[in-house]
Amino acid sequence: MFQEIQRTLFTREQIAERVKGMAADIARDIQADLEKDGHSVLDMDKVIIIPVMTGAMIFVADLIRELPLRLSLGLVAVSSYPGASVRSKGALLASEMPKDLAGKHIIVLDDILDSGQTLAMVRDLILKQNPATLRMGVMLDKQVKRVADISADYVGFEIPDEFVVGYGLDYDGYYRNHPEIGVLDTDSLPS
Q: Which of 111, 134, 171, 185 has the most CB atoms around it within 10 Å of its CB?
């Protein structure tokens, strides 16, 4: 589909299978949390999924369709790879944080965990609102030295330190629509 993609790391089928597994893990944990609090899975105001936009949009769309829970979405936009950058420039909040998270069961979902700055910033802002629980999920966990002290509760795949695109991940706003996750040949891109 795109000649600049050197090789595929994960196919559509591998991604779909892993997303289903992650959804099952999340549903099991949230159901246990709700039961412990004396709530039912029908208490839709208790479960909030917070996708980190824009990279997580495809991952989250697929994952929430696999969740047998009543839930709501609260979006947050964070910028960390502005323009034609292949290294994080630090996390900048580009939208307001969802409100009224106190006492709720929150799952933050992002496309990739690398430096950790994005998830750490979002985590810290959410914790100020006193949620009942807060968990983090990522499609990809890049095996690099973290700048921030954070890990994900749910991980789709671990990857080496390579620049990847597809399935929502981009380079300069492109390649999000590639249905697989692949390594981008950054040497072949126009400068």
A: 111
